[in-house]
Amino acid sequence: MAILPDRHSAAATMLLVDDNAAYRDMTEMALISLGYSVATFSSPQAALESATTNPDLQLLITDVVMTKMTGVQLAAEIHRTRPEMKVLFCSGYPAAALARQGLDLTHGEFLMKPISLAALSAKIEGLLSPTEANL
Predict the structure, then answer these.
(1) Please, what is the end-to-end C-alpha distance for the chain in angstroms?
(2) Average pLDDT of the residues in 27-38
(3) In Å, how far are 19, 24, 82, 125, 127 from 122, measured between CA atoms?
(4) Cα(75)–Cα(60) distance, rounded to whole angstroms?
(5) Which has more confidence, 95 or 2?
(6) How many other C-beta atoms can be found within 10 angstroms of the C-beta atom of residue 89?
(7) Biggest alpha carbon–alpha carbon distance for the chain
(8) For the chain, which terminus, N or C, has the lower number of CB atoms within 10 Å?
(9) Considering the domain boundaries, does residue 94 fall inside one?
(10) How many domains does the chain have?
(11) What is the mean pLDDT of the segment spanning 7-12?
C-alpha cells in the first residue's frame, strides 16, 4: 500500500540536492511516488539559483556533506531570500557527528540515511503541515 501525502502538502514542490547520483535518483523517485513535484540538482550552486527564481519551492531536502558547499551553507544562503522555506537535512553521518564538525542542523529537521519511504513521508508531512498556531 502506498503512503500518500495528505491534502496539506499534496501539491508541494521540493528542491532536492545531493551529490550522490544513486541516492539523489532514488530519493527523487520516492518523492514523485508520494505525489510531490521535485526540482533535482547535484550541485548546491545550481540549486541556489533555482531557489531564488522558483517561487513554488516549499521544501529544501539536502545532503549535509557535499563538496564546495555543505547543505547547511546552502540552506543559509537560500534563507537569505526565502526565509519561509523549510529544510530537511539528510546524511549518512549521525547528527551528533555532524555537530562535532561544526555543522549546525538546528535550522531544519534531520534524517539519517538510508531513509525509509515511511520516514521520509512522515517527516515531510510534519514540516509542511500547518501548525495549530497557524490555523
Answers:
(1) 30
(2) 96
(3) 24, 19, 23, 5, 9
(4) 8
(5) 95
(6) 24
(7) 40
(8) N
(9) yes
(10) 1
(11) 58
Residue 15 three-state SS: strand
Domain annotation covers residue 114: yes
- List Cβ neighbours of 47 (8 Å cut-off, separation of 6 or more): 15, 17, 39, 41, 60, 62, 74
For residue 60, give the amino acid letter.
Answer: L
Alpha-helical runs (H) found in the chain: 21-33, 44-53, 71-81, 95-100, 117-128
Closest to 66 measured CA to CA, from 23, 36, 109, 30: 23
The pLDDT of residue 9: 47
Task: Convert 18-52 to b/e letters by CB count within 10 Å (16 or more is b).
Answer: bbeeebbeebbebbeebbbebbbbeebeebbeebe
Encode pLDDT of 48-105 as tens digits.
999 999 999 999 999 999 999 999 999 999 999 999 999 999 999 999 999 999 999 9
Residue 130 confidence class, pLDDT cut points 50, 70, 90: confident
Q: Which domain holds residue 90?
A: 13-128
Q: Is residue 91 part of a domain?
A: yes
List the beta bridge partners of residue 86.
59
